[in-house]
Amino acid sequence: MTSLSDSIDYLASSETESLNLPFPEAVRVGNMLYLSGVIGNIPGAKELVPGGVAAETKQTMENIKRVLERYGSSLNQVVKVTVILADIKEWNAVNEVYITYFSKDRLPARTAFEASKLILDAHVEMECIAVVQSI
After folding, report:
1. Which residues of 20-50 are buried (b: 16+ CB within 10 A; e: fewer)?
2. What is the C-alpha to C-alpha distance for residues 110 and 85, in angstroms, rounded to an integer?
3. What confidence score (pLDDT) does residue 5 get?
4. How many secondary structure helices (H) and strands (E) does the chain include?
5. How far apart are CA 8 and CA 112, in angstroms?
6. Which one, of 38, 21, 113, lies nearest residue 75 by Cα?
7. Contact, 131 vs 79, CB < 8 A?
8. What are the 10-residue block averages of pLDDT along the chain, 135 residues in total?
9. Most buried residue, 80, 93, 126, 134, by CB count within 10 Å?
10. Which residues contact 42 (CB under 8 A, 6 or more apart)?
11. C-alpha distance from residue 67 to each of 2, 29, 82 (Å)
12. CA 58 from chain center: how many Å?
């Protein structure tokens, strides 16, 4: 018999371990994958991509895609996304990029809200929950 604690995996890659962050990039529980908040940073660096909210949203989505694939999932398996914006007025700009990453008939459930400040003065941060096909 497997205990619940045996079925929880705290996941980090060398890319994120080198950043010395106080959290894993993802936690897998059974066939569900929970990603920590992701911003539009250059992979392996504590530096945002230049270009503002649209560029950061694109990089955020690329970073999410890479983490999902690293742990056996994909954007097609995302069931829930939480979007945190530094300025809710940028919601439309984020959506323009965001929707290009999903099929129109497979948009995940989603919540969006504004926060007073994000890490590294990011414009957008996202976290998501996805299904993992194989454990």
Report:
1. eeeebbbbbeeeebebbbbbbbeeeeeebbe
2. 13
3. 53
4. 3, 7
5. 27
6. 38
7. yes
8. 68 79 89 96 93 98 97 97 98 98 96 96 98 77
9. 126
10. 48, 49, 59
11. 26, 16, 16
12. 11
CA gap 96, 58 in Å, rounded: 10
The candidate with the shortest Cα–Cα distance to 127, out of 51, 43, 33, 44, is: 33
Q: What is the pLDDT of residue 4?
A: 54
Q: Cα(38)–Cα(42) distance, rounded to whole angstroms?
A: 11
60/62 Cα distance (integer angstroms): 5
Q: Percent helix, strand, coil in the chain (nearest 5)? A: 35, 30, 35
CA dihedral over 101, 103, 104, 107, signed as positive or negative:
negative
Q: Which helix (H) or strand (E) holds 125?
A: strand 124-131
